[in-house]
């Protein structure tokens, strides 16, 4: 398709002012422009917008862009109009008159791109207008941005997204492109199924940030560990330190200042002027360390942030990836450093249990936390774990703490095999809590009722305490020997990767450091 890609390049240069496509952009643009469906996974900042904006301008008629965020629509449309593109949006922020003007332009076919909120798209009135465009051959394509909003198990679920599945029925010849920056394997399949994009070509960009070194240490004396890290490695560089609470942000910033670090606090509870001033100083000056809650960072584009540190566990792997991704945007060596402790996990689990949400919401939160703890407890390459979460397989990186100095491990092969066997014997229908009861020989009501006190795995794991079993199960999930079925109460099921271990062809190692603190606390409790 040389003619097509030439005109894609022409649009890229003359409309958007860029000289070359990045990564997968060119292939995606070519595929969609020639009428193909696409499912695009690209990290934030990767350049998703051009993937539908360029084909929108190459194809006859108006492209319909479904977007869940009013602010985002606004920014995109302003930028497009600035570049001379005929773009508009329809959402609840428009008054009736402006909305009518946009609808008229849509009807006339004079729009290149129209951004709409999903609930607007699904109104009979709007669908009628789309029918008209279709019947006059002026419907260019559908772009579904933030496609993970269709996932019921994600944090951004938008029920209206489910209705987008009618598009291929009603407009079978119009190409669709779904885009997202956050989709683990399960979410990806959910997008494909629910949006009926099973046949769509998939474009998966790498989420790897090779210049970021990942380091995760166990908390001992976190402040001392933090100041040691900064003094040793980044005494005069810009960095971000994330804390969970506003109070901890302020205390940590004050303490760092006493230690001679150029630290400033940032959280949503500070007056607007103070936040703006701190943010400006961070952007302008060379060596500000911003101590912040997650309120800080969205849309901050400072290329030379040398480190991102976490003094508390982030909420999820996705959160960790987004937050650490603010380091080293210039491509030069940078570091993601985190201090964590078993106490943090207990605290976060309690916060989830005590939160307002539904049982299902809590179950999701607990699972997200488990997956994250799987990463911090890992004994092998951190990057491999992180990328595996995004469905990417890779070799050990040589640029994370576990690669650089492999942690001490204990052999949990036998325990892991018992765990797998218990999953199997109970019919792959139960969550870790129940399985641990069975392994430890606890005759709970549920264990007795399901007849699990009579099976061969009952009580075979009484030598390990509950916490240790939790670690074993968490690592079985993290290493994908076991999958979590969200649709069935987080039931654990065996995957193909469990086979070598069950056959005795693989070993299963766990970190010793965690073990030590645990057996110590057990002894003192005894
Ligand atoms: P995403 O939606 O994936 O987070 P955007 O589409 O907002 O990413 O693009 C991120 C930034 O990269 C924007 O500033 C955009 O202008 C820029 N960008 C995207 N593609 C290119 C390209 N081919 N050449 C130069 N800059 C690009
Ligand atoms: Zn590594």
Please state roughly what percent of the residues sit in beta strands, choosing from under 5%, 5-15%, 15-25%, 25-35%, 35-45% or over 45%: 15-25%
Strand order of the largest sheet: 3-4-2-5-6-1-7
User: Quick check: average pLDDT?
Assistant: 91
**Chemical compounds bound to the protein:** adenosine-5'-diphosphate, zinc ion
Helix content: 40-55%
Q: Uncertain regions: pLDDT < 50 for 5+ in a row?
A: 1-5, 514-526
Structural class: alpha/beta
Instruction: Please give the alpha-carbon distance between the first and last residues.
Output: 73 Å
How many helical elements? 24
Principal-axes geometry comes out as globular
The number of strands is 17
Radius of gyration: 26 Å
Sheet with most strands: 7 strands, parallel
What does this structure look like?
By secondary structure, the protein is of the alpha/beta class. It has 24 helices and 17 strands. It has a seven-stranded parallel β-sheet, with helices on both faces. Strands 8-13-12-9-11-10 form a six-stranded parallel β-sheet, sandwiched between helices. Helix 14 (about 315-325) links the parallel strand 12 and strand 13. Helix 1 crosses helix 3 (about 50-60) and helix 15 (about 340-355) packs antiparallel against helix 16 (about 360-375). The structure holds adenosine-5'-diphosphate (ADP) and zinc ion. Adenosine-5'-diphosphate binds near residues 21, 42 and 48.
């Amino acid at each position: 398709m040389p003619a097509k890609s030439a005109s894609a390049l022409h649009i890229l240069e003359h409309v958007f002012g860029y000289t070359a496509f990045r990564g997968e952009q060119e292939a995606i643009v070519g595929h969609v422009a020639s009428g193909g469906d696409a499912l695009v996974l690209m990290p934030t900042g990767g350049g998703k917008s051009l993937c539908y904006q360029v084909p929108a301008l190459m194809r006859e008629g108006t492209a319909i862009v479904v977007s869940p965020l009013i602010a985002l629509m606004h920014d995109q449309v302003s930028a497009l109009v600035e570049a001379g593109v005929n773009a508009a949006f329809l959402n609840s922020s428009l008054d009736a008159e402006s909305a009518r003007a946009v609808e008229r332009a849509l009807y006339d076919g004079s729009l290149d791109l129209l951004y709409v909120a999903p609930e607007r798209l699904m109104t009979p009135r709007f669908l009628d207008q789309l029918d008209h465009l279709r019947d006059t051959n002026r419907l260019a394509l559908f772009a579904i941005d933030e496609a993970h909003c269709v996932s019921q198990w994600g944090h951004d679920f938008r029920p209206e997204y489910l209705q987008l599945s009618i598009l291929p029925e009603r407009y079978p010849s119009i190409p669709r492109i779904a885009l997202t920056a956050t989709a683990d394997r399960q979410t990806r399949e959910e997008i494909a199924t629910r949006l009926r994009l099973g046949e769509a070509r998939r474009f998966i960009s790498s989420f790897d940030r090779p210049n970021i070194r990942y380091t995760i240490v166990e908390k001992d004396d976190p402040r001392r560990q933090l100041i040691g890290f900064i003094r040793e490695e980044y005494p005069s560089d810009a960095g971000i330190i994330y804390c969970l609470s506003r109070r901890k942000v302020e205390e940590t910033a004050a303490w760092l200042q006493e230690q001679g670090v150029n630290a400033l606090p940032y959280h949503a509870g500070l007056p607007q002027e103070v936040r703006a001033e701190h943010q400006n100083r961070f952007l302008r000056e060379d060596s500000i360390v911003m101590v912040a809650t997650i309120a800080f960072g969205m849309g901050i584009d400072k290329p030379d942030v040398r480190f991102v540190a976490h003094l508390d566990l982030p909420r999820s792997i996705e959160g960790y990836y987004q937050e650490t991704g603010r380091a080293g945007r210039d491509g030069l060596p940078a570091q993601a450093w985190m201090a964590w402790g078993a106490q943090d996990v207990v605290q976060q689990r309690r916060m989830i249990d005590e939160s307002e949400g539904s049982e299902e919401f809590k179950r999701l939160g607990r699972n997200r936390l488990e997956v994250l703890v799987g990463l911090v407890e890992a004994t092998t390459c951190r990057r491999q774990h992180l990328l595996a979460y995004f469905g990417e397989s890779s070799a050990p990186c040589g640029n994370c703490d576990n690669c650089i100095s492999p942690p001490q491990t204990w052999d949990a092969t036998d325990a892991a095999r018992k765990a797998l066997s218990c999953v199997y014997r109970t019919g792959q229908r139960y969550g870790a809590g129940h399985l641990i009861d069975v392994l430890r020989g606890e005759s709970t009501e549920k264990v007795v009722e399901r007849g699990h006190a009579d099976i061969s795995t009952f009580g075979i794991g009484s030598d390990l305490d509950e916490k240790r079993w939790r670690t074993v199960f968490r690592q079985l999930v993290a290493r994908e020997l076991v999958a979590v079925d969200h649709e069935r109460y987080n039931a654990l099921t065996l995957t193909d990767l469990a086979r070598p271990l069950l056959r005795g062809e693989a070993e299963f190692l766990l970190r010793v450091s965690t073990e030590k603190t645990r057996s110590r606390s057990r002894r003192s409790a005894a």
